[in-house]
């Protein structure tokens, strides 16, 4: 799919303040610093569309980006950032969970996972929560450029093995690098297929 236009729409602290629109939305979620905002920039080909940072906790609101005037990419705050007060963690959790559960036009969540790490409890639990809430999701492994191709495959297979302990059917899985623009066509084609219905 060709990205002809990608523009920031608005930032909102809760679902009810998100754009009043019915176009399909694709949201990016995952631990702080996993590369959600970088991936949005890579997919749209706009380097500074979503704000990124080497320090975790950069994205703190629900950010909508309208693509080709037809659908939205949604950048969410990360979860699991240790250096936060309990109150802050709860606030962000409410923001993320509320958006995911209430947003009717949300057609798919992309859960981002750092390909370098072994399966983390917090991500597995988030997947289970989406499963029980009937939220369609796909997994995007990030930062593939940080490992050799063989190590990427090894980690990918190890992760699939962990997933198959809980999931009868594995979700769609993508391997990406925002640095090397790897996985761009695959993710965009997947979105295009869903948009076509
Ligand atoms: P929060 O908004 O804080 O939750 O983080 P985020 O998930 O949006 O991460 P962000 O896109 O801001 O990226 C975090 C850091 O990882 C930045 O320093 C990025 O440059 C780096 N990064 C993201 N994706 C990649 C990638 O594919 N490869 C490499 N090498 N670095 C990446
Ligand atoms: Mg971010």
UniProtKB/TrEMBL annotation:
Residues 22-197 form the EngB-type G domain. PROSITE patterns: G_ENGB (PS51706). InterPro entries: G_ENGB_dom, GTP-bd, GTP-bd_ribosome_bio_YsxC, P-loop_NTPase. Keywords: Cell cycle, Cell division, GTP-binding, Magnesium, Metal-binding, Nucleotide-binding, Septation. Belongs to the TRAFAC class TrmE-Era-EngA-EngB-Septin-like GTPase superfamily. EngB GTPase family. Necessary for normal cell division and for the maintenance of normal septation. This is Probable GTP-binding protein EngB. The lineage of its organism: Bacteria, Pseudomonadati, Bacteroidota, Bacteroidia, Bacteroidales.
